Amino acid sequence: MAKFVLAGKTDCPLYAKAELLADALKRSLPNFRAHKISILPDDWKEWLEATCKRNGWKHKKSPLVWRELVDQGGKGMLLGGFSDFLEHCQDYYNITSDMPTDIMLSVAAENLETKMNLILEEQHRASLFKPLHIWISSALSPTCHLLIPNLLSAEVFPHVDAISLHLLDLEGGEEQLQGLKIEMENLGLPLLHQVSIHTDLDQAFQEAGVILLLDEWWPDDSDAENESEQERKNRKVKEVSDHYREYGKLIDTRANKEVKVIVSGDSFVNLRCSLLVDNARSIDSDQFVTMATQLENEAKAIMAKKLRVKASDITDLIVWGNISGSFYIDLQRAKVFNYDGAIKGPAFFSQSLLKIFHDRFVTITIKKNKKIIVLKWDCFWLLAGYYNLPDGIVLSVPVTFTEGKWSVLFDVTVGDELKEKLQLSASELRRVCQVTKILRDVVS
């Protein structure tokens, strides 16, 4: 069985005549099948060239008619234009067309009006459908595969009907991103509306409602072996600064003004977040946050091993400071469940870690030879404002998330010693910012 495909400009009289001839054949022949493709006049030339190139045809005018062998598969067989279609119908079906010119023109005008109305209806439906646009940078990071299924859920976004996911990776290849896209689409996540991939910044952060900036890989130059440690660090700082200044400007001009931006990873996270805030001036700084969860989880795991409990049994640790440099884990609110100590209780019973770790300072080593200083608090006092820290510096402090915004938590105690440590962390970050400014001035 054959199916005829009729394509033409919506305002083409000959396309209108071919349509009516196909309708007459369908009424007369129960097994006759026809599919119509109506193309706007402005789009016709490009569509025709692409279709002919794909099928190896040569055709210049509207309409374009071909046959598809439904039962046999394979590509379609070109018939040609209206006169070719008419001749075929006369020879095979003994049916012709005697449509007067005025009716032919009337049908063509009606086709165009119908097509325009359909386009307007589709545009109206599209305007009512507003998915949440989520952008993830460094999308080829292994983290992304684990993140997306947990992120795109009603538990995380209870008031969202649909999500458009945008995967951005400047270092990866389009083929790899395409593979990730297909993998995510195959998960069948209920909230996922569509997935798009991006290997450059041409469309980056358009209409973004949520932006997740994962840890990026900063490749070494070919002559990196000849660099000193300080030169290598300065180069890395400059690379990070250049990237994140541009990201901040793009977020400022393209993202939704209520966008939530999360910076993740363990390299230059404070600096990266600070640069975004500095360059996205039209967006409230409360909408930017960098996560210290990785350090918190590593500290939990190490302390859990010491206490012979699971990492999930330890809660309410606080991370202070520069998590890419000098940082501190605060136990003032920390609790442990299921600890096999002198006092035991049911599953919901917890004990304060301050009563278990008796040393004032406990130093534990985590990956990359970093040190975490775990503080045991004795006497404390509350700081006014943001703990008297300088403006424009991004440090890890305890926060809450309410009504769509991050807020600094002041209901914690801060001793003189921690206050000094935080000032040192702030000075450390200010020096880094000064280095980035000097490097930028030298290059420019």
Structure at a glance:
This protein is 39% helix and 20% strand.
Q: What does the model show?
A:
- Keywords: Oxidoreductase.
- InterPro entries: Lactate_DH/Glyco_Ohase_4_C (IPR015955), Malate_DH_type2 (IPR010945), NAD(P)-bd_dom_sf (IPR036291).
- This protein is an alpha/beta fold and 444 residues long.
- It has 3 domains: 2-127, Glutaredoxin (3-Layer(aba) Sandwich); 130-291, NAD(P)-binding Rossmann-like Domain (Rossmann fold, 3-Layer(aba) Sandwich); 292-438, Lactate dehydrogenase/glycoside hydrolase, family 4, C-terminal (L-2-Hydroxyisocaproate Dehydrogenase, Chain A, domain 2, Alpha-Beta Complex), CATH 3.90.110.
- The chain is built from 10 helices and 19 strands.
- The chain has helices spanning 13-28, 41-55, 82-93, 101-128, 142-151, 174-186, 229-254, 269-279, 293-307, 416-443, and strands spanning 2-9, 33-39, 64-69, 77-80, 132-137, 163-168, 192-198, 208-213, 260-263, 288-290, 314-315, 318-321, 327-330, 335-337, 350-352, 361-365, 371-375, 399-402, 405-408.
- Helix 7 (229-254) links the parallel strand 8 (208-213) and strand 9.
- Helix 1 (13-28) packs parallel to helix 3 (82-93) and helix 7 (229-254) crosses helix 10.
- It is elongated and about 100 Å long.
DSSP strand count: 19
Please summarize the sheet with the most strands. Answer: 6 strands, parallel
Sequence stretches where pLDDT stays below 50 over 5 or more residues: 376-385
> What characteristic shape results from the CA principal axes?
elongated
Strand content: 15-25%
Helical residues, percent: 25-40%
CATH class of the largest domain: Alpha Beta
CATH architecture of the largest domain: 3-Layer(aba) Sandwich
The helix-and-strand class reads: alpha/beta
Looking at this structure, what is the CATH superfamily of the largest domain?
A: NAD(P)-binding Rossmann-like Domain
| Widest sheet: strand ordering | 7-6-5-8-9-10
Distance between the termini: 70 Å
Taken together, the total number of domains comes to 3
Query: H/E series, N to C?
Result: EHEHEEHHEHEHEEHEHEHEEEEEEEEEH
Mean pLDDT across the residues is 81
CATH topology of the largest domain: Rossmann fold
Number of helices: 10
Computed CA radius of gyration, to the nearest angstrom: 32 Å
